[in-house]
Recover the amino acids of this structure.
């Protein structure tokens, strides 16, 4: 009997009708004799709204808390009424929703009075999205006459470090706990419904696994339960050659290696959380990305050694050099320059030390052999802080004489395992840019040769993605 962990993203859980669709997908698999563990995200947009309201609460805006919790309750109660037919079940679930929201209201009011939002209290607030969606999905399954039980990540036994906002699981401890909580239910034919994204540290304090972290919850559970596969259900047919919202003719990739998929996730193909593949790589558990709107479609299979399996799928060539292209928005570029950096050991280290100490993550780096300047890409929201800390720490000390920034840029990344060792890929990419009149501001290619990333003005971003998609004929893949 196959064990499958299925994760449903916010886009698949936008409305009560969608939740019913999700329940039916789970039901179909259970009828096929699969043992299924369900992992759910918050309803679409809810986590973003929780981030907003926690900031407003910090500023002391109590009125907004009233309005927000009222709207949140309405949204979830409408979902309850559409997702569940049985009146008794509806009533029970509505009560859970009301109780959960009244707890949230207390937490937000506390933040409002104290005027302080710590990483710990922020994670607590953000946990409410999944705490509200999981009971609704669970009841929708019971409504279809399946035995189901919902768990928070904490109750399921997912134990993490205390790195609030980006916590990582303590896998051995977690596995031990999950064998006690989830495994026995699964063996009895009960469907566990677990909140994605949220867990708890060793002291039982709620943590979150980073944005999009429900994917991570699914793979953590997959490994702990030694599942046969992990299925990530979303609103697109799989991992595509580029974001289909940018280029509608983007094609689905049937098969990707863990390495390729991780590369794509890191580079902004939102279809997957960047760290979600770490646990399954070690355990060699295949992951499938599938669409709730086309459940007959097999989706994208992410596994070890794709070439072996590829030969079994005759329609797919394994020779594509560039398989996918991504655009990463909301970034900014910093240029640090100064003759004092030339031949001065530790000068680059100084730049990174300043940024690291101020919690500014560097996404991309490029330097020239002249050593007189270095370009860095950071999240746009961190630009102001990055610029001022670099200026304070470095200017006027003989090393750096100018720090400049551009905030109207984006990163374009072309990816594919077959780029390694293939001549002329960079030339084709940059010729395609030149032909469209797109100026390149910065370039980086790691020695892994799995991707080439470069920075262009944001206004040229879509044209750049389209040009690479055309150059490598990705819509014919
Ligand atoms: P979920 O709510 O299911 O977690 P996400 O919004 O996190 O969904 O991810 C799915 C979205 O990722 C798609 O709707 C799509 O627009 C976007 N996306 C970006 N790049 C890609 C890509 N290369 N392949 C598939 N989807 C992509
Ligand atoms: N709800 C969380 C987020 O929006 C986790 C997830 O959706 O995977 O980031
Ligand atoms: Mg996601």
């Amino acid at each position: 009997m196959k064990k499958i962990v299925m994760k449903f993203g916010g886009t698949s859980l936008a409305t009560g009708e969608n939740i019913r669709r999700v329940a039916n997908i789970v039901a179909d698999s259970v009828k096929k004799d699969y043992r299924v563990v369900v992992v759910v995200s918050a309803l679409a947009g809810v986590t973003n709204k929780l981030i907003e309201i926690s900031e407003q609460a910090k500023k002391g805006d109590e009125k907004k808390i009233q309005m927000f919790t009222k709207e949140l309750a309405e949204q979830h109660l409408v979902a309850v009424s559409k997702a569940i037919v049985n009146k008794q079940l509806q009533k029970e679930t509505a009560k859970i929703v009301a109780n959960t929201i009244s707890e949230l209201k207390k937490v937000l009011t506390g933040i409002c009075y104290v005027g302080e939002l710590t990483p710990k209290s922020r994670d607590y607030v953000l946990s409410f999205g999944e705490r509200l969606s999981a009971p609704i999905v669970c009841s929708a399954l019971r409504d279809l006459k399946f035995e189901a039980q919902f768990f928070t990540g904490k109750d399921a036994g997912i134990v993490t470090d205390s790195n609030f906002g980006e916590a990582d699981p303590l896998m051995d401890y977690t596995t031990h706990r999950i064998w006690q909580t989830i495994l026995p239910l699964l063996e009895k034919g009960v469907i566990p419904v677990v909140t994605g994204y949220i867990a708890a540290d060793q002291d039982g304090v709620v943590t979150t696994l980073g944005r999009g972290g429900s994917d991570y919850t699914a793979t953590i559970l997959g490994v702990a339960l030694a599942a046969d596969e992990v299925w990530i259900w979303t609103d697109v047919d799989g991992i595509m050659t580029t974001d289909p919202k940018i280029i509608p003719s983007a094609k689905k990739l049937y098969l990707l290696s863990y390495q390729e998929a991780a590369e794509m996730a890191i580079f902004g193909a939102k279809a997957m959380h960047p760290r979600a593949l770490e646990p399954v790589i070690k355990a060699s558990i295949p992951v499938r990305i599938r669409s709730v709107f086309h459940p007959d479609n097999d989706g994208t299979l992410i596994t070890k050694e794709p070439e072996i399996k590829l030969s079994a799928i005759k329609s797919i060539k394994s020779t594509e050099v560039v398989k996918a292209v991504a655009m990463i928005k909301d970034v900014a570029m910093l240029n640090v320059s100064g003759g004092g950096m030339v031949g001065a050991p530790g000068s680059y280290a100084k730049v990174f030390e300043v940024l690291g100490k101020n919690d500014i993550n560097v996404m991309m780096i490029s330097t020239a052999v002249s050593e007189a300047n270095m370009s860095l890409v950071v999240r746009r929201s961190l630009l102001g802080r990055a610029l001022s800390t670099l200026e304070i720490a470095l200017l006027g000390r003989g090393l750096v004489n100018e720090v400049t920034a551009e905030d109207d840029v984006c990163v374009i990344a072309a990816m594919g395992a077959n780029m390694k060792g293939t001549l002329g890929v960079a030339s084709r990419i940059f010729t395609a840019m030149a032909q469209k009149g797109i100026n390149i501001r910065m370039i980086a290619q790691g020695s892994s040769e799995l991707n080439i990333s470069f920075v262009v003005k944001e206004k040229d971003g879509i044209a750049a993605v389209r040009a690479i998609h055309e150059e490598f004929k990705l819509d014919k893949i």
